[in-house]
Amino acid sequence: MPWVYLIVAGVLEVVWAYSMHQSQGFTRLTPSLITIITMTASFWLLAIAMRSIPLGTAYPVWTGTGAIGTFLVGITLLAEPVNTMRIVAALLIFSGLVLMKLAST
């Protein structure tokens, strides 16, 4: 179950990052509230996951999940540029997440 909490925490990180972008510097109420709520939930789930998963594994997986997720959201929802270098960088982050998971079992 700790890995489920950790992955959900990473997904919520993507949600709060996107909501923060949509809040336009916390000038729009609804996206600002979504940011605060999902950020809090993300940290809470990360903390629960870290009861069982070592810090050196949990934190990189959480941030990496958020990084890959926000990269995909940027491309799909915000029309951010897609190029070889960015894709390779995302694949390297993903590879690191897989290795981190394999190293922890």
Task: Explain what this protein looks like in three dimensions.
With 105 residues, the protein is mainly α. It has one domain (2-103). Helix content is 82%, strand content 0%. It is built from four helices and no strands. The protein has helices spanning 2-22, 29-49, 55-78, 84-103. The radius of gyration is 15 Å and the shape is flat. The model has no long low-confidence stretch (mean pLDDT 94).
Sequence-ordered SSE layout with sheet pairings:
Blueprint: H1 2-22, H2 29-49, H3 55-78, H4 84-103
Helix pairs in contact: 1-2, 1-3, 3-4
Spans of 5+ residues with little confidence (pLDDT < 50)?
Answer: none
Largest sheet features:
none
Q: How much helix, percentage-wise, in residues?
A: over 70%
**Shape annotation:** flat
Mean pLDDT: 94
Computed Rg: 15 Å
Q: H/E order of the elements?
A: HHHH
Strand content: under 5%
How many β-strand stretches?
0
Q: Number of folding domains?
A: 1
Summed up, the helix count is 4
Structural classification: mainly alpha
For the termini, the CA-CA separation is 14 Å
